[in-house]
Write a structure and sequence with these properties.
Radius of gyration: 19 Å
Strand content: 5-15%
Mean pLDDT: 87
Number of strands: 8
Helix content: 25-40%
Structural class: alpha/beta
Shape: globular
Low-confidence stretches: 1-28
Number of domains: 2
Length: about 300
């Protein structure tokens, strides 16, 4: 479903992160202005920038980012930005605005981390690879390095601070990776069922198997045949939990769980925050995912 709102034209705020500032609304001052397409890259940019740059995330809290439509104000933000961080192929309206309007530096994260080829058996969509790179924390590390370089080039006076902040973020990402590896090392099951195929990188990194109800695009409805196959798989393989997500539809996952008498729980793709008032950030949401997977798969 296409989502357009006047609120999308605003520079938005993310929660405060340890050692850095929140996103704020002063996009017209002397500080460099960094615009990002989706939350994970806004988080990265904000952690690196600290108090020295303004970060605008085009996808505001509560908005499903796949089919974001830009307002004129957001197109102007892209045009005026010192740095734009986006993921080509994920948000076509952002791709178009970057191609037509961006005057500053542009960083397409797929030039840093090529997308993994995926075969999504439940749908026919136009995504050529899995866009959810951030579900493997180690894949964010080269993106952190690239964003740091671009912000430093836009504001060389604060390069030392940017690189120090980036080092702290890289350390946090390595800690998160270690927590996942240790937390999922000894489990009764290694398979999980989720509402859409947003967790392929996570599954690959930690030797799990993801069974999605829908493919890479959550708005594409699964066929009745696929839903029947999913129900048979859940019953046959002893799956205890069907995962839905915060921003996408929960209908199919919750119906399967209810009809089969298994648990329903949330596994967050971390494409965006649920609301402005959330105290969560990328690290806390990923750790909530880890706890959910441990609970569902009987990990010790």
């Amino acid at each position: 479903m296409k989502l357009t709102s006047a609120l999308l034209g605003l520079t938005v705020s993310l929660p405060l992160f340890a050692g850095c500032s929140a996103l704020d609304s002063d996009a017209s001052g002397s500080r460099p202005h960094v615009v990002t397409g989706i939350y994970p890259y806004a988080y990265v940019a904000a952690r690196i920038a600290g108090d020295h740059a303004t970060i605008t995330n085009l996808t505001t809290p509560g908005v499903e980012p796949h089919d974001l439509e830009l307002t004129p104000r957001q197109v102007a933000d892209i045009s005026e930005a010192d740095v734009v961080v986006y993921e080509s192929g994920f948000q076509p309206s952002v791709d178009s605005a970057v191609d037509q309007s961006a005057a500053g530096a542009t960083l397409d994260v797929t030039d840093v981390v090529p997308l993994k080829d995926t075969s999504a058996p439940t749908e026919q969509d136009d995504l050529s690879g899995d866009p959810h790179i951030w579900q493997d924390p180690t894949l964010l590390i080269p993106i952190v390095e690239a964003v740091t370089s671009d912000i430093s080039e836009a504001d060389p006076a604060h390069e030392d601070d940017y690189r120090s902040n980036a080092a702290g973020l890289v350390s946090d990402l390595k800690d998160l990776d270690r927590d996942f590896a240790n937390g999922l090392a000894d489990c009764e099951r290694t398979t999980f069922v989720t509402s859409h195929a947003a967790f392929g990188y996570l599954a690959s990194r930690y030797d799990l198997e993801m069974i999605p109800i829908a493919g890479l695009s959550p708005e594409v409805e699964p066929s009745p045949q696929h839903l029947a196959e999913m129900a048979d798989y859940i019953e046959t393989d002893g799956i205890t939990t069907v995962f839905s997500e915060t921003l996408g539809t929960k209908a199919y996952a919750d119906t399967l769980a209810r009809d089969l008498g298994v648990q329903s729980a949330v596994l967050d793709p971390v494409e965006g925050l649920a609301d402005d008032d959330s105290d969560d950030d990328y690290l806390s949401l990923m750790r909530e995912n880890l706890a959910a997977l441990q609970q569902a798969n009987g990990c010790s």
